Amino acid sequence: MNDAIRRTRLLHRRRTLRALGGAGAWLAGGRAMAQTTPPATSGVPACVLTPAQTEGPYFVDERLERSDIRADPATGTVKPGALLTLEMAIFAVDGARCVPAANAIVDVWHCDATGVYSDANDMSFSTRGSKFLRGYQVADANGRVRFTTIYPGAYPGRAVHIHFKVRTKPRGEFTSQLYFDDALTDRVHANAPYAGAADGARTHNARDGLYRRGGPELQLDVVGDGSGYRARYDVGIRV
Predict the structure, then answer these.
(1) Do the Cβ atoms of 237 and 93 come closer than 8 Å?
(2) I want to staple 118 with a disulfide (CB 3.0 to 4.6 A). Which of 54, 59, 130, 225 is the partner?
(3) Helix, strand, coil shares, percent, the chain, to 5
(4) Is the pLDDT of residue 103 over 90?
C-alpha cells in the first residue's frame, strides 16, 4: 500500500471516530466538523482503537494539572521552541459505538528542543526535580483536552514524538505516543533553538522501530496557527 492511500484511509478512520462520537462540532484544521451518527446503511466502519505503545523510561506521575506545560513550575522558566497547541479527544470504544470519555485524565510529556526530558537521569543529562513539558488535563464532557507546549526536539535514536497516557475510572490506563511528519520536522528543526542542538541524533520515522509498529496511525494532523502550530488527534480506547 503506498503512502497516499495509507494516509487517506487513516484520515477516513479518524473522521469516522469523530463522527461516531456524539453531537456537537470539533474544530479541525480551521474547519468545524459536525459530529453526527451515520446511518447504519452507510457502510462506515466501526470505531477505531488507537495503537498502544510503550510509555518509555521518562514517565513521572507529577500530578501537575495544567494546560500550558512549557514552564518549570519551580522557576517559571519557559522552554523555548516553536509554539504547539495540542488538542485531543478521548473516546471509549465499544464495538461500533464511541462515547466521549468525560473526566478521563490525560498526561502528556516530551523532550525539549535539545532532546532533554525533565525530572530524569540519563547518560547525557540529569534534570531531577524539574517538571517542564509535563502535565495533565481532565477531559471535559466531550472527552476533549488541550495543551500548550512546544514542538519536540530530537531525542537520540527516536523519531520526534510526544508521549501520552489516558487514565479512566476505576483502573483503566492506556499509553501511546504521537508522531510528526518528517518534512514538517525538517522545517521546524532548521531554526533556533533546534538547529544544531542534536546533530546526528535525529531519527526519521521510517528508521524508528516503534514508529514502524503503529506510528502511521499515530501521526498528528498539524496545521500552521499564526506564529506556531496546531495539532489534533482523536484517541479511541477500550474501557
Answers:
(1) yes
(2) 130
(3) 15, 35, 50
(4) yes
- Select from 78, 55, 47, 34 the least CA-distant residue to 239: 47
The residue type found at 190 is A
* pLDDT for the residue numbered 183: 96
Say if residues 195 and 203 touch (Cβ distance below 8 Å).
no
Strands, E, within the chain: which ranges? 25-28, 31-34, 83-94, 97-100, 105-109, 134-138, 144-150, 161-168, 172-179, 221-225, 228-237
Enumerate the domain spans of the chain: 48-237
Using left for φ > 0, alpha for ψ between -120 and 50, and beta otherwise, residue 43 falls in left
Which of the residue ranges 3-12, 125-134, 208-217, 229-238 would you say has the lowest mean pLDDT? 3-12
Q: Is the separation of the CB atoms in 83 and 133 below 8 Å?
A: no
Q: Residue 170, preceding bond cis, omega within 30 degrees?
A: yes
Alpha-carbon gap, residue 154 to 199, rounded angstroms: 9
Q: Quote the CA–CA distance of 188 and 195 in Å, as a whole number.
A: 9
Strand partners, 163: 109, 177
3: part of which helix (H) or strand (E)? helix 3-19
pLDDT band at 94 (very low <50, low <70, confident <90, very high): confident
At 32, the amino acid letter reads A
pLDDT tier for residue 162 given thresholds of 50, 70 and 90: very high
Q: Is 193 exposed, middle or buried (0-12, 13-18, 19+ CB in 10 A)?
A: middle
* pLDDT score for 232: 95
